[in-house]
Fold this protein.
Amino acid sequence: MIAREYREYKVVAFITAYLDSSALMKIIPLIESQTFPVAEIFIIDNSPDLLIRTQASHIKIRHFPNNVGVAGGLLEGFREVLESKYDFLWMFDQDSEPAENCLEELLNFWQKAKYVERLPVGIVSPLVFDANTYRHIGGAIFEKFRFREKLPSLTDCQSFMECDSPITSGSLFSVEVIKKDFSPRRELFMDGVDLDYGMQLRRNGFQNFIVKAAKMNHRLGSPLKIRFWGKELLVQNYSPIRTYYFFRNHTYLEIYYSSGALNKGVAVLRRIAYMVRGILAAIIICDKKINRVRACFMGTLSGLFGVLERI
């Protein structure tokens, strides 16, 4: 991609939708009203029945009732960008709400980082505020044997934060990155897809950024609030099937990206301990206890042995 006035770039917004037509109807006008206009909105509907129908010429809908997941949706987005000759893919989950200047700020940063600072830009992502937990969501950093969340400082003068992997929703991907030989792994299906792809980019020399001036609200799951020893804690309340993928994929990825026998061994022990905590939380707090306990155990076991088939 050659340097040019960023207003000339063509951006396609891509939404992965599932079983929530109200969220989908809320995010579409937020994308349509961006100060930098998107060229097209592409919706991957993973629901058994089509969520919405529209005659709008700038909106395309592709229905996958068999559910291709987050990974499959991202791969469909990559294919659309390459086939339709767009410059950027702006990726969303349905439960996100970008500020009206979000895209403009992301493109401003990308242009400056790429052509002024001469940085190898991979993913640029907005500063995300979780409307469920009332806190900002950081980017993932991989340390020896685990992924750790790194939160952006809101008090320093730096306009961005570098990380290994920002969350997928709200992230902007340039066509030159999408053209590379590595891509999201379809077999991960959901959860951890962003961790893996961000790490692939990082290990191939790219830098991923969270841009503080680009703002977006997002709902990260449906956590339960509990009080423990006088403190309020949040416990994720995923469905049993998402719990399985969460435990499986995080277990697999932390072992996969750990270097050396010692770090891999620590990663294994850490994931087993995390499984025990998950099982205890399922028994004490959550509903569908047997299914959730099974999901924690089988997900961790599959991750330990690298079994990534879809269930």
